Amino acid sequence: MKKRNLIQSLFFAFVCSAFIMASCEEEIIGPEKANTPTTNFEQFWKTFDEDYGMFEVKNIDWKAIHDQFKPKVNDQMTDEELYTVLSEMIVLLNDNHLNLYPTNGELPVFPGGILSYRNRQLEILKVQEDYDIEVAKTYTTDYDQVTENIGYGKLPDNLIYLNVKGTDGMKEVEKQMAKVMVNISSARGVIIDVRGFYGGYDPVSQYIAGCFATSKKLYMTTKKRNGPAHSDFTEPAAWYVEPKTSNPYDKPVIVLSSRFTQSAGETFALALRQFEHITAVGDTTAGSFSDNPNFEMYNGWMFSVSVGDYRAPGEVSYEGFGIPPDVFVKTTKDDLLDGKDVTLEKAIEMFPE
């Protein structure tokens, strides 16, 4: 009899516990929002308001942008009309790391390319037309693709062409870069091409840059949003570049960049530029450094938000602007069709005899 009462008591306790947990969950999560254009618009705006990291550095009044676009939103609008409103809001932030991913199968990803100002108008460059790795490789001999993202070859007059287009696993990079540095140690100069470096893992970029570092130098500080106020951030983290081999390359180096050099490609270029033996040639970089996690809307669409504030030494922010080169030169589409890489040719000419 006691055993039966015990079982009944345990069952009653379990039911009560489940009821309490369900009640707590409802209180914590709250009622599910209706999937309407209005709720999606407000969620989109609020997520940026609570997580975007560059309102202050870019001097953006996000509340004013809300009030500007709110009258354009109503629950009778189509997906395409909502897409237009949200994408127009993204453009005002001038951030290449922001993307909108509709999931209804009819609307494209926005922006899906690099933002650029031409004739005072913002346009999206969907296809890179100032660089082609296959054209660049025609200037080399004995080109060796040592990892998926790292390759190098010989140029005339004892110069080396090194192409970095992304980040591989750290162990593989450490292994292969050790061999590369031995093989290029006797070259009188190196050209590092990051015009096709669209992003990756910052610590790997940091390591590769360290193969050309002659001392330890601060090259970047980063902090992430961690509160509702636009000024709420984690404590800044300092990033240093330092020699990663016993004999780092200390002879002249030229780095080639473009508007498509972004994210980890930009932090790589920034690390290299802390040293006097390294010169930047080409076009201004994209100006998109921060991490950009994805968030989901009530309608299933995804969007990315830049949550950090990345600064060069001296508290300089290149977000939205990009890092300008020391020497500006840009290869055109017609140049590439003619088999010419004007930017690479300029870099080769710049090495002293």
Overall spatial form? elongated
Strand order of the largest sheet: 4-5-6-7-10-11-15
CATH superfamily of the largest domain: 2-enoyl-CoA Hydratase, Chain A, domain 1
Order of helices and strands: HHHHEEEHEEEHEHEEEHEEEEEHH
Please give the CATH architecture of the largest domain: Alpha-Beta Complex
The helix content is 25-40%
Main sheet characteristics = 7 strands, mixed
Record field, number of beta strands: 15
Q: Give the class-level CATH name of the largest domain.
A: Alpha Beta
Query: What distance lies between the first and last C-alpha atoms, to the nearest angstrom?
Result: 101 Å
pLDDT below 50 for ≥5 consecutive residues: which ranges? 1-30
Look up the CATH topology of the largest domain.
2-enoyl-CoA Hydratase, Chain A, domain 1
Total helical segments: 10
Supply the helix-strand structural class: alpha/beta
User: What's the structural domain tally?
Assistant: 2
Keywords:
seven-stranded mixed β-sheet; 15 strands; single chain; 2-enoyl-CoA Hydratase, Chain A, domain 1; disordered N terminus; elongated; 10 helices; about 20% strand; Transcription Regulator spoIIAA; about 350 residues; alpha/beta
Textual characterization of the structure:
The chain is α/β, with parallel strands linked by helices and 353 residues long. It has helices at residues 2-29, 37-51, 62-69, 79-92, 133-137, 170-184, 202-210, 264-272, 333-337, 342-350, and strands at residues 100-101, 114-118, 121-125, 141-145, 150-155, 159-164, 189-193, 217-224, 237-241, 253-257, 278-282, 294-296, 302-304, 308-311, 327-328. The chain has a seven-stranded mixed sheet, covered by helices on one side. Helix 6 (170-184) packs parallel to helix 7 (202-210). The longest helix has 28 residues, at 2-29. The radius of gyration is 26 Å and the shape is elongated. It starts with a helix and ends with a helix.
